[in-house]
Amino acid sequence: MHGGSPDIHVILMTCPPDQAEKILLALLERRLVGCGNIIPLVRSRYWWEGQICSDDEALVVMETTPDRLDALYAAIPEVHPYTVPKVVALQPSACGEPYLQWLRAVTRPG
Amino acid sequence: MHGGSPDIHVILMTCPPDQAEKILLALLERRLVGCGNIIPLVRSRYWWEGQICSDDEALVVMETTPDRLDALYAAIPEVHPYTVPKVVALQPSACGEPYLQWLRAVTRPG
Amino acid sequence: MHGGSPDIHVILMTCPPDQAEKILLALLERRLVGCGNIIPLVRSRYWWEGQICSDDEALVVMETTPDRLDALYAAIPEVHPYTVPKVVALQPSACGEPYLQWLRAVTRPG
């Protein structure tokens, strides 16, 4: 079955395509996320310094638990090359119970 | 226009790339989702049995209504090969009204 | 650090692959979104007029602020070819503060 508002956050992050694996691995090794799905090539367009710019990026979808969210945000500047990285957390309304249990177990520090 | 907290859930699911169509079709045929977008190839890294593993997966983004959510979660073990599948539901803050009406109509059982 | 429920919406939109750039550019130029990531090719399956149809689409992940959401939804029919487009807004539970400040600045009208 699934919870009402489960203890999980879905994290959306963009980064240079050739750094996605390295960033995700660093976050996994620190138990800050339980898993990540790298969408290897997205076409990004965005406002920057008064112009619409465009870049190839990777979009990474990760999951973590609420107790690891602060530590995740604190670690981003150490592992991500951007000064203004997109790291957005979404709180699900439901999630499979086995998945939640697994996520709690694998994101426990130490 | 669009509602405050509309009657819709966005579902994120990962699965083996070669089973995404079959799983999505099974859920559509049972009217458990109204549509699905298959991102055919994502690179997944995750903790499993004490190690960081990696796999190619598909990421499927689907939509359903609140009254079909329980039935959707109940059906997952019948159509998904994993013992611990990622099936996460996100509740939007807004959605186009025509889309909502369409989704209600196509997810009505029977 | 990051806010509790920050002033940002993540927008999920699907559209024909060859129109994703044009639609995203139109929304950026009107300052209705701050950025967008185009996932160029997804396989969509959906109910339409009593049948399960399938199409190649693009999935675009965009961000905007709450004060621009109504204007965004009002503009969709002018820039999107579908009669029933998927334009779903998700409200994050957290987001990097520098990103939030940037988003507010670049989505200010005029």
TrEMBL record, chains A, B, C:
Signal sequence segment: none
Name by which UniProt lists this protein: Divalent cation tolerance protein
GO molecular function (one): copper ion binding
Organism annotation: Nannocystis exedens
Annotated Pfam families: CutA1
GO BP: response to metal ion
Native organism taxonomy: Bacteria, Pseudomonadati, Myxococcota, Polyangia, Nannocystales
Protein family according to the UniProt entry: Belongs to the CutA family.
